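Might I ask for a little of your time on a matter of protein folding? Here, with my thanks, is the record as I have it:
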Amino acid sequence: MKSAVVQFKASTNKNDNLKKILSFISKAASKNATLCAFPEFMMFYTNSSQTSKQLAGLAETINGNFVSTIAQTAKENHIQVVGSFYEKSRKKDRVYDTSFMIDKSGKVISTYRKIHLYDALGFRESDKMTSGSKITKPVWTSIGKVGMMICYDLRFPEMSRSLAVAGSEVLVVPSAWVKGNMKEEHWITINKARAIENGCYVIAPDQVGNIYCGRSLVVDPYGKILLDMKKKQGIGFVDIDLKKVKNTRKVLPLLKNRRTDVYSTLKV
């Protein structure tokens, strides 16, 4: 099955970004993609001068205009969409960084609130966001059973392993990977590692421009990079073959060879 990966530079204007997103969805569908994956912070770019109160004021619920409009376009184009948005929370002046999966009928079938906030390397997402409290179960899609993560989650292998054990054949990871010393090397290495150690595909659409590095990736279950979008805005396409997941897990049975009976014996 063909999957589309969108890499673009989100502006600070929510409505302008939404127009671009809808256009990308239509284009992906016209190329016979069955799923279209977008980066983190696709709703709008939050610069350092934007206060937590201002961000919270622009956030929406899952039933708000932003996601509902995307869902309607997904329905009209008969395509699944994975995206992200700033979701309102009950905590004052804090929002969730939330990803969502929309099916071909325009129904939101899954959501995931980012659990690992990027409080590292000089950034503090927790100054404006609040973290989710659970990993979302993988869901069936046209490209296989999909587990959802977001950006910084990639640095925590426990999460991708949990999703793989739960049946994920594909991990979709909307990201906004910040530029910096060795950051692109980290990005590429970590995406490949998560694919290899779990014998699954990793689809990682990334923001480009502003403070982000681009390099949206798709990695196959054996660690081969199938797509690297470098610094270009636009859509990339890749075929997802679940036979590769099955065959890789057969010849390199890492999930099967785990020693869960022993790991807990280490006392700290």
